[in-house]
C-alpha cells in the first residue's frame, strides 16, 4: 500500500503547478523590470557622455583663458611669452 490516493496525487500536482505558475509570473515581472532598468541605464549613459564632453570643453576653455592671461602678463613684464622660457632652457645645456 502506497498510502496516497489518486485524488490526493492530483491535488498535490495542481498545487505544484499553481506554485510554479506563480513563480514564473514573478520571474516574468522581474525580467520586465530588469529590461526597464537597462533602458534607463542606456539613457543615463548618453547623458553622461554629453556631460563629459561639456566638462571637457569647459576645461579646454579655462586652460585657453589661463594661458592667454599668462602670455599677457609675461608681455607686460617685458618678456616674449613662451619664447622667454625656451631661451633659458638652451643656455643651461
UniProtKB/TrEMBL annotation:
It comes from the Eukaryota. GO terms for biological process: attachment of spindle microtubules to kinetochore. Transmembrane segments: none annotated. Residues 70-93 are annotated as: Disordered. Coiled coil: none annotated. Residues 81-93 have a biased composition (Gly residues). This is DASH complex subunit Hsk3 like-domain-containing protein. One of its GO terms (cellular component) is DASH complex. It comes from Acaromyces ingoldii. One of its GO terms (molecular function) is microtubule plus-end binding.
Amino acid at each position: 500500500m502506497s498510502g496516497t490516493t489518486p485524488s490526493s496525487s492530483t491535488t498535490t500536482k495542481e498545487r505544484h503547478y499553481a506554485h510554479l505558475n506563480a513563480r514564473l509570473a514573478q520571474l516574468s515581472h522581474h525580467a520586465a523590470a530588469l529590461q526597464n532598468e537597462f533602458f534607463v541605464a542606456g539613457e543615463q549613459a548618453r547623458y553622461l557622455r554629453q556631460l563629459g564632453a561639456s566638462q571637457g570643453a569647459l576645461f579646454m576653455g579655462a586652460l585657453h583663458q589661463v594661458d592667454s592671461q599668462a602670455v599677457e602678463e609675461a608681455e607686460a613684464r617685458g618678456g616674449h611669452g613662451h619664447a622667454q622660457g625656451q631661451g633659458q632652457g638652451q643656455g643651461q645645456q
